[in-house]
Amino acid sequence: MTRLSELGESHVLERILSHYRSGSQVIIGPGDDAAVTAVDADLVSTADMLVENEDFTRTWLDWSRLGVKAAAQNLSDVCVMGAQPHGLLVSLAIPNSTDIEDLEALFAGIVAEAGRAGVELGCEVPIIGGDLSSSQLIVVAITALGAIGKDAAITRSGARPGDAIYLAGTIGRAAAGLDLLWAGAEHDTSRAAPDMSGTAPDMSGTDLELARLIDTQLAPQPDYAAAGRMRAASAMIDVSDGLSTDLGRVASASGVHARIDRADLQDLIDPVLPAARHLLGDDAAGAEELALGWVLNGGEDHGFVASSAPFDTPPVGWRRIGEMRAGHGVSLDGEPVPTSGFSHFGK
Amino acid sequence: MTRLSELGESHVLERILSHYRSGSQVIIGPGDDAAVTAVDADLVSTADMLVENEDFTRTWLDWSRLGVKAAAQNLSDVCVMGAQPHGLLVSLAIPNSTDIEDLEALFAGIVAEAGRAGVELGCEVPIIGGDLSSSQLIVVAITALGAIGKDAAITRSGARPGDAIYLAGTIGRAAAGLDLLWAGAEHDTSRAAPDMSGTAPDMSGTDLELARLIDTQLAPQPDYAAAGRMRAASAMIDVSDGLSTDLGRVASASGVHARIDRADLQDLIDPVLPAARHLLGDDAAGAEELALGWVLNGGEDHGFVASSAPFDTPPVGWRRIGEMRAGHGVSLDGEPVPTSGFSHFGK
User: Fold this and answer.
1) Which residues form the domain of B334?
2) Which residues are involved in binding Mg(2+) 1 (chains A, B) (predicted)?
3) B110 and B193, same structural domain?
4) Closest Cα to residue B88, out of B117, B65, B63?
């Protein structure tokens, strides 16, 4: 293991650049004052950070998964606009004492997730620029760029009464994983993935389920392809702060009421129940409530929510979870749901 | 004064958004999952961070000037590609205990500098997105976007033997200001600027000169318009790490030798000599050497260096400082100059 302080900046950059993949849209890549790329469409742009001790702790830190998560939270925002990702700029503040192998793992995670999005959506997603600075705290600040045809952007404000509400991917799993991490659960999630031969990992059923929830917190895997299949949506949003909050944003921006059906959430509650039982023991009613809370209010799985005129059969990857009505706010089986969600700065 | 933790995220965002200016290129601005903007040209993108205790300290912190500097270092990189700025994405990690007025001053500084670049280059430069997170350390991570016509980008690699080397703006002043700050000099630079009536500030001549050097460190003012007048350049670079380093990058990328003439630097050395004398006292030879060191190796003024077939009269704002020859590396009056410059990670 070699620390960044022993290598010096130019060698660190050299090692990182070896992880870069180019793309046919790149005219001038990393290494000049700025990158130049060809975008034959309107430009989509978004920026999202991960900050040490706010979004993750050194105790749980898995460098490769941190890279996956940083890329995923940005790529999700591009894809739910209905756009194709175009490239990433990665700014990284990182301690001098970091091992270069860990930094490389971080970049490998970013590159792998960008590559996965590219495969799912049929495009190339290179890292086209960024910055690297030493710092006492780890901060990963990514800007994701995308391309979209004229007037094709899917915003939060187009939902209409009578639309059905659809969900792609999962919700609640990352929040369950976070509570498991706070409770000090084993987080060697590498054991949760099947090995190269496809052999199932050597863990008990429950351990495996819990490890997979933690893995969703550490390295969410948004269903980018599903966003690409929802071109008919009247509104779409990335569930980063929780279903209640993000659906509340759609309701508010569109001037509608979003009614969720509890029965439609059961498939999402069941997989996180073992974690709630693990944390609460014999309190069965409490466990059910905790699990429902994760599903309603937990972000970071980067599930996608969309509204659309009802489908007979929704696009692959999407399930119906409710409908838009006249009014405002969000309700569960008719009971109002608070839409406050996660807030930085303590309120 | 109200702390961010007392306001909560949504009110903080509301206050910040009040500083945003839109632009005619903005189709969907801040407030959705991502921004959508129209770029009728190739896209230029670059990202640069300022990190607390690495790029500035809490002691010197002037929030408005920090915003100016964060914007300037990014806009410079866009402009030296020969591009017009298109917009900024601002990701900000900031302590909970920060006063909202300070955060607003930071955004006002960013908006003011983006506005200045827009006026100089005849374009609009809105903030189109970003992220805000609480953090133990302040990190300002900006991505600047620009637009440029096909094949119009000015890279580092086009310099040819026989080209003259030109400089726009200043070099060495920010480095002198930094050494003054480290030495504990007075940094109430607000007194260095004329007041609204144009009355000269009430400071002695030397104090004023020193305060202005510190102001260049805290809030550099790149000559964006000059970059716009250098369309004929064979190569151009933003001097962010020092003339020796950045000219070394051009020489290396272009496969040429860059010869600087000491006599051409005297106009740049003279204004920083008072700072060197202030720091070194009676050591006149030492002061001259320190001043030359700042000019040769100091970054952060964001002066621009360009190479071009020699002009009879260079474009307004540009001065000749040397010439490109066959060979490699950088020399001063024929003596090789090390091109190592500033390095993160200690080497």
Assistant:
1) 164-346
2) 48, 131
3) no
4) B117
